[in-house]
Amino acid sequence: MRKGFRPMGARRGYSAVTRRAALGGLAAGFAGAWGCNPHRDQIRPDNLLGRIGRPQGEVIEPKKCALRLAIVGRPFRDPVVNEVVWRAADEQAISHEERRALQANGIRLGRISGDLPRELEALFSAPPPNKVEPVTFLVPEGTQELFALSDEVEQASLLLNLDGRITGKDYDNARGHYRVTPEHHGANAVALRLTPEVHHGPIRRSYEPLQQATPYAPQEFKIADGQKQDAVRDLTARLVIEPGQVVVLGCLPEQERSLGAFLFTASGEHPDQRTQRVALVWAERNQLGVIEEKKTPAKSAPADGPADAGPTPADDEIAR
Predict the structure, then answer these.
(1) Residues forming a β-bridge with 74
(2) What's the rounded Cα separation, in Å, for the pair 274 and 261?
C-alpha cells in the first residue's frame, strides 16, 4: 500500500465522524444558548426588543390640538356675559400693547384659570333651548381654524382704531369670525394666536394654497367658495393656555360701532331683543403614547449561581 493512501471505507468513516462532531457541536451551542444558558431570557427576541430604549419606549404621533368652542348668548348687557365672566378672567394674560389695541376696538380678551363662575357653569347644564353645547375641533399643530361668531348682516358700518388712526369702513353681507392657530408650548401648554376677521360681499370661487408637510413639496391648491376676507392682523393676540384654563372673548358694549360690538352683539326685530355674547375657547394637546415595558417576574437564584429551570421539550429536540 502506498504511503499516504487511505482505503475508501476509512475516508467515509472519517467524514461521517466529522459531520457528527460538527452537528454535535452546533447542537451543544444551541442548547447552551437556549436551554442551559442561565441568561437565556435576556437574548430572546421579545426581551431584546423590550430592552431597546429603556426605561420605556415612546410612540411618535403627529402633533395635534383639540380646540373646544362654546358661544354663550344672553340679553344685551346681561350681568353674566357683561360682568360676572370678566371678574373671573385675567385680562392681563396678553401683552399691554395687545390689550390696548383690542380695547380701543371694543374687544375684551382674558383667561380663566380653574372652574368657571357658577352663573356661567349653570348654562352648560341648563335645559334646552338655553343649554350651551361646546363644539370640538381636532386640528394639526400650526393649522388655522376659523370660528364664526356672528350672524350675517346685510350692512355693517364699522369704526376701526389702528395705531391711533380711526377709519370707517362699510361692509355688505358681513359676518364676523375669529381665526385661531394653536401650537404646542412647553411640556403641556398650548400657545394660541387669535386674529379677528370680517367676511363680506358675495360668495365667489377662489383657489387657496394648501399647507404643505415639507417646504420642498410642490404647491397645491384647493377650490373654495366663500366671501372676501378682511383679517385685522393689527389686533392679533397671543397667549398660552395650560390645562384647566380657558380663553374668554367678548366686547365693550358701550362702543356701538366698534369691531367688538359687531362680533359679539346682535340686533333683533325689536330693540329689547338685542343680544350679547362671549366666546369660550379651550385648548388641549395630544400626549405621546407610551408603550409599557413588559413586566416579568424576577427569578430567584441561590448564592452560588443562577438557578436553571431545566431543559424544555424544544431544547431536547435541538439537542437530539
Answers:
(1) 276
(2) 11
| Rounded-to-integer distance, Cα 107 and Cα 105, Å | 6
What is the average pLDDT across 160-181?
94
Spatial separation of the C-alpha atoms in residues 182 and 138, rounded to whole Å = 11
| DSSP annotation of 54 | T
CB burial readout 216-229, b (16+ within 10 A) else e = eeeeeeeeeeebee
pTM, full prediction: 0.67
SS (H, E, C) 23-50: HHHHHHHHHHHHHCCCCHHHHCHHHHHH
The mean pLDDT of 138-162, rounded to a whole number, is 93
Whole-angstrom distance, CA of residue 86 vs CA of residue 77: 13
Distance from C-alpha of 141 to C-alpha of 184, rounded to nearest angstrom = 7
Q: What is the amino acid identity at position 105?
A: N
Spatial distance between the Cα atoms of 224 and 205, rounded to a whole number of angstroms: 6
pLDDT digits (tens, 9 = 90+) for 87-126: 999 999 999 999 999 999 999 999 999 999 999 999 998 8
Query: Under 8 Å CB-to-CB from 258, ≥6 apart: which residues?
Result: 105, 106, 107, 158, 159, 161, 251, 252
User: 11 versus 180: which is more confidently predicted?
Assistant: 180
